[in-house]
Design brief:
This protein is an alpha+beta fold and about 120 residues long. The chain has one domain: HesB-like domain (Hypothetical Protein Aq_1857, Chain: A, Sandwich). The protein is built from three helices and nine strands; from the N terminus they run H-E-H-E-E-E-E-H-E-E-E-E. The strands form two sheets. It has a six-stranded mixed β-sheet. The protein starts with 11 loop residues before the first helix and ends with a strand.
Length: about 120
């Protein structure tokens, strides 16, 4: 069961993170096998381009977490990471050599590496 010190936040910033139908379908499949876990997306310094997207399954909510929900599936993102993801789209892609969650169309990203796991920020 999910635990948190306080209720997670759902606000306009969280509403600006989108999920494709492929992402929703894969999450429904994952959650049916592991209902106590949710997909966590975070952004950390590193990778080829300066920042990298990290995806994991998690069972614990932190005070600064936001929950994004679409079609009865949820994703957890900490508030600081969500600022880097505002307006982006989460997708699930299944290819011959790998299957993975990916961030598409991130308006905060200037460029990224060829595998799509890292990005650099736009400079205003």
């Amino acid at each position: 069961m999910w635990s948190t010190a306080s209720s997670p936040v759902t606000d306009n910033l969280a509403a600006s993170l989108n999920m494709t139908d492929g992402c929703v379908k894969r999450l429904k499949d994952l959650y049916s096998n592991e209902p106590s876990r949710l997909l966590r997306i975070s952004v950390e310094g590193g990778g080829c381009s300066g920042f990298q997207y990290l995806f994991s399954l998690d069972t614990k909510l932190e005070e600064e977490d936001c929950i994004i929900e679409k079609n009865d599936v949820k994703i957890v993102v900490d508030r600081q990471s969500l600022e880097f993801l505002e307006g982006a789209t989460v997708d699930f892609q299944s290819e011959l050599i790998r299957s993975s969650f990916r961030i598409l169309q991130n308006p905060k990203a200037d460029s990224g590496c060829s595998c799509g796991a890292s990005f650099s920020l736009k400079v205003d």
